[in-house]
What we know:
The protein is an alpha+beta fold. It folds into four domains: 3-111, Arc Repressor Mutant, subunit A, CATH 1.10.10; 117-162; 173-274, no CATH class; 291-369, Alpha-Beta Plaits (2-Layer Sandwich), CATH 3.30.70. Helix content is 36%, strand content 26%. It has helices at residues 3-12, 29-40, 49-60, 66-78, 117-128, 135-146, 151-156, 173-186, 276-282, 303-310, 332-341, 352-369, and strands at 83-93, 100-111, 188-197, 203-205, 215-226, 229-236, 243-246, 250-259, 291-299, 315-317, 323-331, 346-350. Helix 2 (29-40) packs across helix 3 (49-60), helix 5 (117-128) packs antiparallel against helix 6 (135-146) and helix 11 (332-341) packs across helix 12 (352-369). The termini are far apart.
Amino acid sequence: MGKKTDIIEEKSLGGSSMGDGAKQPKKLVLFNILDILKQHTDENHRLSQRDIENILRDEYDMIVDRKTIKTSLMNLEEFGYEIEYSECLRPIKNKKTGEMEDSYILSDFYLRRDFEDSELRLLIDSLLFSKHLPYSQCKELVEKIEKLSNKYFKARIKHISTMPQDRTNNQQLFYTIDILDEAISHGKKVKFKYTEYGTDFKQRAKKNSAGEERSYVVSPYQMAAKEGKYYLICNYDKYDDISNYRIDRIVDIELLDENAKPFEKLKGSDGKRLDLAKYMREHVYMYSSNSSRVKIRVVKAMISDVIDMFGKDVQFYGETEDTVCVKANVNEAAMIQFAQSYAPDVEILEPLALRREVKERLRKAYKAYE
């Protein structure tokens, strides 16, 4: 802290005294009180000045009078911490005159937090259900988020003990993200190796026809999460179209000095810069084929699934008692997958080429089971 803080600390500590068994220096009282508020309080758990005095004595080996505690609390509020408390008017005897006088007593102190517990739970659950974070790093992140609340929140969080360990083991993930972020910010290309699993459940770099580990040079444009996975939207240098790569499978990444290709010059970009929201709507399975205006017929029970999958930019028409038709701009490979997954409740009407493709795939699937 700066000089102003030091002066306030010295002043506020003037009334404090340390017992024979106390181990902590006086100047720590302000920080210890802040730590107590962080660890012990929220809107449902409040502390009086006496409570704080007892915790300082029992947990911090520090004996401090209540006047110093009140001054420290007011100093913390002055420094910008949102400390809530209640005020009540009580008669107190004046030590000099012996007469009873009205005095405001402050109590029920708690620290207002940047995050509600429900918001922290949402962040933690998002991490736990992600499939691209290594177990150890996910555990560390969850523990950091837990520290944003108090001991009562930590006691309620039991998810970490049941966290699945069958996730990626790529320990380079955060370094990869840092490099990609730098490359995207400065419009540079990157080079990396891309891994795949073997039957022994280990990830190995993909190899070329000569049996050597293959290197990928790409122009990165955006990172995006989809279905619990983390993707890089980019251009593979050998071609002029858009590709998607799983970031958790990228290893040995290098930042290159070569400028990235402009996104608007790629096939499928329509000459425009990347619109991430539109791209994610159209690429529901993150396949990187072309997008088309597709017409499908679905049973009415599928309406919610259609909106979940393609967003609210779809158009409904041709409604009957049992079915409804849908128009949507969507990635062709994703639509084929969607139609196969939900057949016969989803039927592609147009384009006819997509309809024929699904028909042929379903015929092969039937033959396999025949």
